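Example (one chain per record):
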Amino acid sequence: YSNNPYWGWAIGASYITPCTTSDCGCTDDQAYNCDGSILDGYVELWNQVYHIETTTELNLLNANLYLISETIPPEIGELINLVSLNLGHNQLTGSIPSEIGNLVQLEVLNLYVNELTGSIPTEIENLVNLISIDVYENNLTGEIPEGITNMPNMLRLQFDNNQFTGSIPENIGNLTNMNRLYLHNNQLSENVPESLCNIYSNLIVFTMYNNNLCPPYPDCISEDVVGNQDITNCIIPGCTDEGACNYNVFANQEDGSCLYNDCAGECDGNAVEDCEGICGGDSTIDECGICGGD
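Predicted structure:
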């Protein structure tokens, strides 16, 4: 094993201290050439060398209590056989490299509780085998990529406690196997897509509170799940007349849709009072101007 303070564990990793040109014991089965360069078929990440073909799992969760305070290098994309990547609970900075999209065998992506910034690269849509994405408690921005809705095996999406903007992906309802969806404490806006109702009954956990999501909300979502939403910037068309029977408490843009109760109290009903003031009565004013006259 090397003395690298960031050492965690990895299936297929090579934990070999670099040899030097003065080390006559250098052999081809080590990860380094005698001049200190890395042999073909290996990649160096955070001062640790990994075998590209055989490394299938990389777990640097909390980095064995030594927090990684660097960026995620683009070379991460060379570990093309990774199935699980866990870099959670470190101090990683910078953005998620687009090269992450090369990890087409990946099933688990854990980047939670770091200091990552920028947006999720669109290349993530290449990772169609993913079953879990956990990026909560970072400083990620931009929109949640629509491409994640094309991952049929997805079980868990945890995007909470970031600064994501834009809308919830329109086709989120395509993820029919998903049972956990965390979206709270972001800046998501616009309307919640109706397709969410396709999977709502499957969700063991669903959170969306503390966003900027606009009403009306799909009928399948209860008020307690909606929670607190800042709708200050929402454009909500509807009836704004409080005297109307279809007054929309959320509406801030009159759309001419107001309806009113008839004399029988029926919203948009056709009952009217006759000349004697009887709702639905049949008295009329005759030609002499007499109500109910002959």
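Caption: The longest strand covers residues 42-45.
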